[in-house]
Amino acid sequence: MRDRRFVAAHRGDPLQMQEHRDLMEWASNCVKHALVHIGEHSNTSLTKILDVGQAWKHGKASVGDARSAAFAAIAIANELKDPAKISAARAIGHAVATAHMADHALRAVDYALKALNKEDRLSEKQWQNQQLPESIRTLVLTARK
């Protein structure tokens, strides 16, 4: 069952639009940070997908555009062989899918962690948590496993 705290206010639940945008920004930043670690930050096909999430955040792309971009990231992941790159592509897909369902932000940062070497994951998760805006800090920290 979904955590109702991540369901948008226009659907009758508590998540405000600014919080939804903050989740998108946080997830995107965490994914970008992981991309740098694995040397994929200049992969234009992946970074263009992340740009759709930013466009949604600024009202310049629809949820449908974001969903399509997320599916494109998953298609890229399905073609890859390297587990780190697969996780990175899936992280991007989930980050952009945050526009559709806000709790995808949590999956995005989890996949970003999977893209890294095991010894780097704990410090990266701490870094991710430090990047949380106050508006979503409690929500995310209580929802993260």
Major sheet characteristics: none
How many beta strands in the DSSP annotation? 0
The percent range for strand residues is under 5%
First-to-last CA distance: 15 Å
List keywords for this structure.
single chain; 145 residues; mainly alpha
List the helices and strands and how they pair.
Blueprint: H1 17-38, H2 44-57, H3 63-79, H4 83-97, H5 104-114, H6 118-130, H7 134-143
Give your account of this protein's structure.
Helix content is 70%, strand content 0%. The protein contains seven helices and no strands. The longest helix has 22 residues, at 17-38. The model has no long low-confidence stretch (mean pLDDT 95).
Give a quick rundown of the structure.
70% of the residues lie in helices and 0% in strands. The protein contains 7 helices and no strands.
